Amino acid sequence: MKKALITGIFGQDGSYLCEILANKGYEVHGIIKDPLSHNSQKIKNYLNFLGVSPHVHSVDLNSYEELKQVIIDIHPDEIYHLAAFHMSAEDNQLSKSIGEKYLFDYNVKSTSNLLCICYEHIRHVKFVAAGSCLMFDASDSLYQNEKTPFKSRSLYGLAKISENMLLTYYRNKGLHASTAILFNHESSRRSDNFVTKKIVKSLVAISKGEINSFTLGDLEVKKDWGWARDYAYGMYLIAQGIEPKDYVLSSGKGHTIRYFADIVSNQIGLVDWQKYVLIDENILTRRSYTVLLGDSSLARDELNWQHSMTLEQLVHAMVENELSGVLI
Ligand code: NDP
C-alpha cells in the first residue's frame, strides 16, 4: 500500500486530494496546524461523514526536528505540500495580524525544512509543492506558462518563487520534486474570505433576506478560475510523472468578478444584484495590474490533465452547495 503525506490536508485542495488518494487505496497522512480554523474543521467533519479518515499529525512545519521525526515514522512515497499562510485580496485582518513578513518567513522555511528532510532521509519520495499564479503577478506576458519568467510584486508571490528555487535546487540533486503552478480554483470548500465564496454566500443570504449588502472590490478584474478537485487531481498526476517537472494548472479563460456574480444571481433569481454591493476602496487599491491567464498546454499534453467542469457548472455547484450545506 502506498503512503501519501499531505500538508494542509483539511484545506480545500488537501481534502480533495485526500479523497482521491484514499479512493486509490493509499494510506493517507496529513499534517495540520492545531487548532484547525473553522473552515478546515468543517471540511474535516465532512470527510469523516464520507468515511474518509486520514492519519493526522499536528506538527509545526517550521520545527525541523519535530517534522523530521514525523516524516521518518510515516516514510511516505509521496508528499504534497499544500499548507501555506496566504491572504485573499479581501483579507485586511489577516494581513494586519500575521503580517506579510511572517507569511514569507514561515512559508519558505516550511518548504526548506520539508525538502531537506526528504533529501536527507527519504530520497525515493515524490514531492509536489503548490505554487501560485501570483509568481507572475508582475509579468508582462499575455499568457503565463512554465517558460514565463517569474516576476512578482507580492511577498506571497516572492515566497512561492523562493520555494520554487529551493525545489529546483533539490531536484538538481536528484529529488523527484515538482511545483504545480496553480491558477485560481474554487469550490464550496473555499473559505469565506475568498471572493467567489463571498459572492455566493452573500447573494444567497440577500435572496433569503438575511443581509442587505456586502462589499467587493473591482468588478471588472478578470480571473482564471477552475474547479479545485481538478487541480488536486493534477497534483496527483504530477507526482506520477517519470521525470519531476513544474506544470501550470489553469483554465486559460478569463472571466470578470461581475460575470461570476451574474451567474450566481441568475441561478437564484436575484434581480439587479449590483444594488446590494458596496465598493471597498481597500480592495480596489490592492488590485493586480497583470491579467493572470495560464497556459496549461504542457499539463494537458504530457499528463492528459483535463477540466471536468465549466465555470458555469462550477458556480451552479457552489450555489447548490450553499443552499443545501453540502461540501461537494
Ligand atoms: P486552504 O486555505 O483551503 O488550505 C490550506 C490548508 O493549510 C488549511 O487547512 C490550513 O489550515 C492549512 N495550514 C495553514 N498553515 C498551516 C501550517 N503551518 N501547518 C499545517 N497546516 C497549515 O488553501 P487551498 O487548499 O485553496 O490552497 C492549497 C495551496 O495551493 C496553498 O499553498 C495555496 O497557497 C496554493 N494556491 C491555491 C490557489 C487557489 O486558488 N485555491 C491558487 C494558487 C495557489 P487552517 O485552515 O486550519 O489554518
3D structure, described in words:
With 328 residues, this protein is an alpha/beta fold. It has twelve helices and 13 strands. It has helices at residues 12-23, 38-50, 64-74, 92-97, 100-121, 155-172, 195-207, 228-240, 257-268, 281-285, 297-303, 311-324, and strands at residues 3-7, 27-32, 55-58, 78-81, 126-132, 176-182, 185-186, 214-216, 222-224, 226-227, 247-249, 254-256, 277-279. The strands form four sheets. A seven-stranded parallel sheet has the order 3-2-1-4-5-6-11, sandwiched between helices. It has a two-stranded parallel ribbon with strand order 7-10. Helix 2 (38-50) links the parallel strand 2 and strand 3. Helix 1 (12-23) crosses helix 8. The longest helix has 22 residues, at 100-121. The protein is globular. The protein starts with a strand and ends with a helix. The chain binds NADPH dihydro-nicotinamide-adenine-dinucleotide phosphate. NADPH dihydro-nicotinamide-adenine-dinucleotide phosphate is lined by residues 7-8, 10-14, 31-33, 36-37, 39-40, 61, 82-86, 130, 132, 182, 184-185, 191.
Q: What summary fits the major beta sheet? A: 7 strands, parallel
Structural class computed from helices and strand pairing: alpha/beta
Percent of residues in beta strands = 15-25%
* Radius of gyration, CA atoms, in whole angstroms: 19 Å
Low-confidence runs:
none
Report strand order across the widest sheet: 3-2-1-4-5-6-11
Task: State the distance separating the first and last CA atoms.
Answer: 27 Å
Q: Which ligands appear in the coordinates?
A: NADPH dihydro-nicotinamide-adenine-dinucleotide phosphate
Number of strands: 13
Individual helix count: 12
The dominant shape is globular
- Into which percent range does the helicity of residues fall? 40-55%
Order of H and E elements = EHEHEHEHHEHEEHEEEHEEHEHHH
Mean pLDDT: 94
